[in-house]
Structure formats: structure tokens, C-alpha cells
């Protein structure tokens, strides 16, 4: 990886990548509210919190904050509100907050990709095979995770009394 990648930026990018994948999985699944949805949603929520919290350690060149940091504050609030809503049984609010959080993530990703000098576009320009390998690893591990969760939920038996 480029020398300008720190552990914090790497963790942020990995968590953001998993957030994009697992969020899409839950939004595109037909069945909502089941055990697979909840397990994938928990993984997504944790990865989103990692993205949000690590974002505050990543500053602009002059050491300041930008619009992505404002989005992180908003995402922290909407993500927390979405979790609170489902805990209280308000499915409509949960759906709205979580969908909004996911589309905010997509917006942030688009914003990052639109600036050629940022790290991910630079990786795409200068290290495309490495980026391709990283994407395959992320997609593969996410797919294995979802398949494993689904299989575990299917094979789980209810104790007979």
C-alpha cells in the first residue's frame, strides 16, 4: 500500500468497505427482521461506528475538518437513532434512519472517489491490481460471513422439551 496509508486510514477504509457491502446485503434482502437480517445488521452497525469514529482522526492536509466530518456527526446520530428505534419496536423509524445512514455512506464514498488526489483514487490509478485484489478479498470475506450466518441460522435447532 502507499506509504501515506496509516493504520487509522486503513481501518477506516476497511470498515467503510464492509459497511458498503453489509448495508447493501440488508437493504437488498427480501426478508427483513429475521435472524440473518439482525446478525448482518449488527455487523453493519459496528462497522459504521468504526467508520464514524475513525473519521475524526483523519484530518485534511491543514489539520482541519471538512464536510465529511459533518456527515460523520450526522451518521453517528442517525445510526444511534435507528438502533434506538428498533429497540423500542418502531420499525418505520428504524428503516428510515438506517436507510438514510446507508445512503449517507454512499454519498461520502462518492465524495471520496470524486477527488483524484485522495488515497483510494490514487490506489486505483497507481496500484489497480492491488485494489482489485483488496476488493475481491473484501467481497469474498463478506460473502462467506453472510453464508456462514445463514447456514448457522438454518442449522440451529430448537431444543425439544
Based on CA atoms alone, the radius of gyration comes out at: 17 Å
Instruction: List the helices and strands in order.
Output: HHHHHH
- Main β-sheet, in a few words? none
* Poorly predicted parts: none
Q: Helix amount, in percent? A: over 70%
Q: Based on helices, strands and strand pairing, what is the structural class?
A: mainly alpha
Span between termini:
56 Å
Number of helices: 6
Number of strands: 0
Shape: globular
- Average the pLDDT over all residues and give the rounded result: 87
DSSP strand content = under 5%
Short note summarizing the structure:
With 161 residues, the chain is mostly helical. The chain is built from 6 helices and no strands. Helix 1 packs across helix 6 and helix 3 packs antiparallel against helix 4 (91-113).
Outline the structure in words.
It is a single chain. By secondary structure, the chain is an all-alpha fold. It is 76% helix and 0% strand. It is built from six helices and no strands. The protein has helices spanning 7-28, 35-55, 67-87, 91-113, 119-126, 128-155. The model has no long low-confidence stretch (mean pLDDT 87).
List keywords for this structure.
single chain, 161 residues, mainly alpha, 76% helix, 0% strand, globular
Ordered list of secondary-structure elements with their pairings:
Elements: H1 7-28, H2 35-55, H3 67-87, H4 91-113, H5 119-126, H6 128-155
Helix pairs in contact: 1-2, 1-4, 1-6, 2-3, 2-6, 3-4, 5-6
